[in-house]
Amino acid sequence: MIRIAEKQLEPDPGMPVSTWRLRSDAWEFLRFAVKRLALEGDARDAVANAEEIRRNLRALEAIELYWAGFGQRYVRRIGKLIEHGDPTGALERIGRVVHRLRRTSVPGETEPTADEVELAEQQDDHDTRTRFEVLLVDETTEADRDGVHAEMRRLRTGADDFIYDLVIVPSADDAIAALLTNPGILACIVRPGFSDRSRQSLSPDLRATIELAHAQAAAAPAAARSSIPSVQRVLRLADTLHALRPEVDLYLVAGAHIEDLAGALTHRFRRVFRREDQLELHLSLLRRVSHLYDTPFFDAIQNHARRPVGVFHALPVGRGGSVVSSKWIRDLADFYGMNLLLAETSATSGGLDSLLAPTGAIKKAQDLAARAFGAQRTFLVTNGTSTANKIVHQALVEPDDVVLVDRNCHKSHHHALMLTGGRTAYLEAYPLNDFAFYGAVPIDRIKRVLLDYRAAGRLHEVHLITLTNCTFDGIVYDPARVMAECLAIKPDLVFLWDEAWFAFAAFHPITRQRTAMAAAKRLAERLRSAEHAAAHREQQTRLVDPATGEPRDDDAWMSEQLIPPPDARIRVYATQSTHKTLTALRQGSMIHVYDQDWALEAEYAFHEAFMTHTSTSPNYQILASLDLGRRQVELEGFELVQRQLDLATSLARSVARHPLLRRTFRVLSARDLIPQQYRRTWRPMPLRDGFAEMWQAWEQDEFVIDPSRVTIEITRTGVDGDTFKHTHLMDEYGIQVNKTSRNTVLFMTNIGTSRSAIAYLVEVLVKLAQRFERERASGERPPIEEGPGVPPLPDFSAFAPAYAAGSGLPDGDLRAAFYDGQRRQLIEYATPQVLRDRVASGERPVSAGFVTPYPPGFPVLVPGQIVTAEVLDFMAALDTREIHGFDPVRGYRLIR
C-alpha cells in the first residue's frame, strides 16, 4: 500500500503555456504508474513509481480546478483509493478521464463505489453530442457546486444540439487562470459573491500573468463606470476577462436590483439574469453557441447539393453531369467523391448568393467572419491574398498618391502599385546579413520619411502605408504604435497590413493584440478618451511653436513617442491568407476593414476594385471552407493556436538541448533576429519562459518573433538551405518546409501540427546530423570553411531620373517604368558580366522589370530602378533555383 503524503500543492512549471499537454500527459503518466502498481505490486522501483504517482496527483489537483468534468474532488478520491490499497479501482477511474481526453468511448460499467454525483458524470461519457465548457465565478461550498451541476443536468433535453459542463471557481484570479489554461471555455457566468484572490498555489508565471491581465484592463479606456463599489468590482473583472478572451460571452447573475445593474453593465455582459432564471440562462448559453456554430454558406451549399436540380446553365461538371456518364474520366468522381460535383454550380440563386453582390448566405458568412476577427466588415476572397492586396490598393490609391511600402513585401504589392499608378516610396527594413533576409521597418525610419515629405511640402500627397505583419520570417510589428506615431504626423493616413501569415493570431490572448484589427479598435477607443486628449495637448506644447503654430525641428518629433490628435481617423485594412494558417482550401483569403471613413471615402471604390479583380465564377468550395474555418476558430481557436505555439517551442527546445543537434544546428532567437535597440525585454525566446515573459515582450518591444516559427541555422551542415530543403528534407524524408535562405531553414507549426509530427522532425534532424558528422569524419564531406558568406543585402538604390521625384525624396513612378519596360524599342539585354563592366565604368543601367529570386522572395530590382554593383554582387552569390524576371541566356532586361 502506498500512502500519498499530505503536502501543499506544488506550482506547475508548465502553466499556462503547456497546460493542455501537461494535463493530458499527467493523466497518461498517472495511468501508467498506477497500472504498474496494480500489476507488479512491490517492484524494485516501487519508490520511484510512488513518487511519480504523487507528482502527477499534485499537478492534477492544481490543474483540474480549471477544467470541467472531473475536478479536484475526483483527483483526491483517486489518491484515496491508491492510499487504501485499491490501485485497480483507481485505474478504472483514471481510464475514464484518459478516454474522454482522447475522445474515445469509455469501456466497462460504472464503478459501484461511485456516488450520485459521479454516476451522473459517468452517464455523460456516453453522450455523443459536442460539449463545451462554461465558467462560473462565485464563492461556493462543495454542496452548492453539486447542486449547480445537478440543476444544469436537469435542464438538458434530448433536443439540445450541444451540452455544456461547468467550471466553478471562487475568485477573480481563478477566473483569469481558467480562461488562460482552459481553451474549451466558451462562456462565463459571473455572480457578485466571488472573492478577489486565489487560494490556489499558483506558479510564479501564472501569478505574474494574472497581474498583467489586470493591468492591461485597467490601462484601457473605461467604457462605463459606476458609483456602486460592488458594481465597479464586477465591471473590473468583466473588463479583464473581455480583454483576455473577447470571444467568451459574459453573463451576470445577480440577486436584486438587476434593472439598475443592467444599465451599467450591458456594455460588457451579454445579459443580466436573476438567480431563479436558470432556464433562460441555460437557453441563452446554448443559443449563443449555436450562433457561433452557424455556417450560412456551407449550409446553403449542402442544401443545394441535396436538391434535385435540372441544369440548363454553364458548368457541365456540375451535378457530375459530364463525369458520371463517361467511361474515361469516372476516376474524377472516384477520387474526389460525388459531393464535390454535386456542390459545383454556376447558380447564384436558390439560397446560394453572389460573391460580387452578396445579400444572403455569403453576406451572412462575411458578417460572421468580421465578428470573429474583430473587424467592422470582412470580405471573402477566392483567389488568394495576392488578389486581396491588389483590391485594397486599387480601392485606396489614386494615380500620383504617394505610397510608403516595405521593399521586402510580397511581390503582389509591387504589382498593385504598378497597376494603380501610385508613386512608390520604398522603406528599408533592417537587414539580417548573416542569414540573407530582412527583418522589418523600424518606426524611426517611417517617421523620418514622413517628416521629410512634410519638410518638402508634399506630406499631403502621402496617402497609404503598406507593411507586412508578420513577415515571412516571423518578425511582428506593434501596429498600434506604428499607426499612432504616423497619425501624429499625418492624421488621415490609411494603413494596409499584409497579414498573410498571421490569420491565426486573432485567436490567442497575446498575439491578438498585435493584429491590425485589434490594434485599430484599441487605438480608436484610446483616441476617444479624455486622458488621451490631455496627453496630446501636453505633448504639442513641446513639438509645436505656440507663436506660429508650426512644428518645431524634426529632431524633437523623432525623439519622442508621438501621440496622435483625438480627431485622427482610424482607417485600417488587413489582408489575410486564411488558407496559410487556418482551415481553408488553397487560395481562400479574407480582407478585414476597420475604416471610420468607409462610407464617405472607400465603399464605392472598394466594391469597384473587388469587381475588377474577382472572378464572376468564384469557387464555392473555397467559400464554404472559409465559412467552416471561421466556425472552427471561434469555437476552438484558442486551443488550436496555443497548441501550435507550444509545439514550436517544443521543437526549438529539442534542437537546443540535444547534444548532437546543437552541434549541427542553431535555433535563432530574438537576439539573432531583432537588434537590441528594438527590444526592451531580454529573454531570447519568451514563450519558453512562460506566458508572462511572452506577454511582456509583446507589450513592450517594438518587434517580436512569432513563436510558431522556428528558424534554424544550418551552416555547420556544409550544405545550403535550398539543398537541405529539397534533397534532404523533402526527397529523402517527405518533410515540407516553406522557406530557406542560404544558411537557414524555416520550420512553421500550424493548427494542424501534431506532437507526432514534431517527434518525426526531430528524429529526421538527428539522422541527418549523424550522417553529416559521419561523412565529415570519413572525409566524404569537406570541412566547414568560414568564408565571407553572402554579400550584404542590397538596399533599394534609387529610381532613375526619368521616373524619380527628385528633391531627395524616394518616390518614383513604377507604372511608367513598367510600361516603358514593355516597349521593344526601348529594351535591351545584358549578361551579368557585361552589366557588371558597364556599372564599373560609371554607367547607371535601369531595370526594365521585376527581378525576384526565391529565396529571399522579394524584388531585388523593380522597373525603373538603377542597377548597382551591390545588387549584382548579391545576385551573383545566390545559388537559388528560381529567379523570376531574369533570363539565364540573355541576362538582365534593361531600359535603354
Structure description:
The protein is an alpha/beta fold. Helices cover 46% and strands 12% of the residues. The strands form seven sheets. An eight-stranded mixed beta sheet has the order 6-15-14-13-11-7-8-21, sandwiched between helices. Strands 2-1-3-4-5 form a five-stranded parallel beta sheet, sandwiched between helices. Helix 19 (479-489) crosses helix 20 (516-527). The chain starts with 18 loop residues before the first helix and ends with a strand. The model is unreliable at 1-17 (pLDDT under 50).
Keywords, separated by commas or semicolons:
single chain, 896 residues, alpha/beta, eight-stranded mixed β-sheet, five-stranded parallel β-sheet, 33 helices, 26 strands, 12% strand, globular, disordered N terminus
Straight-line distance between termini: 91 Å
SS elements, strand count? 26
Give the CA-based shape: globular
Low-confidence stretches: 1-17
Strand order of the largest sheet: 6-15-14-13-11-7-8-21
Sheet with most strands: 8 strands, mixed
Helix content: 40-55%
Rg is 30 Å
Q: Supply the helix-strand structural class.
A: alpha/beta
Mean pLDDT: 89
DSSP strand (E) fraction?
Answer: 5-15%
Number of helices: 33
Element layout with pairings:
Layout: H1 19-40, H2 46-63, H3 71-83, H4 87-102, H5 116-124, E1 130-137, H6 142-155, E2 162-169, H7 172-181, E3 185-190, H8 204-219, H9 229-244, E4 249-254, H10 258-265, E5 271-274, H11 278-293, H12 296-306, H13 330-336, H14 338-342, H15 361-373, E6 377-381, H16 384-396, E7 402-406, H17 411-420, E8 423-427, E9 431-432, E10 437-438, H18 443-455, E11 462-468, E12 475-476, H19 479-489, E13 494-498, H20 516-527, H21 530-543, H22 554-559, E14 571-576, H23 578-581, E15 589-595, H24 598-613, H25 620-657, H26 659-664, E16 666-667, H27 670-673, H28 691-700, E17 704-705, E18 709-713, H29 721-733, E19 739-740, E20 744-748, H30 755-778, E21 812-813, H31 814-820, E22 827-830, H32 832-840, E23 846-847, E24 852-854, H33 869-877, E25 882-884, E26 892-895
Parallel strand pairs: 1-2, 1-3, 3-4, 4-5, 7-8, 7-11, 11-13, 13-14
Antiparallel strand pairs: 6-15, 8-21, 9-10, 12-17, 14-15, 16-18, 18-20, 19-20, 22-26, 23-26, 24-25
Helix pairs in contact: 1-2, 1-4, 2-3, 3-4, 7-9, 8-9, 8-28, 12-25, 15-25, 16-17, 16-24, 17-31, 18-19, 19-20, 25-30
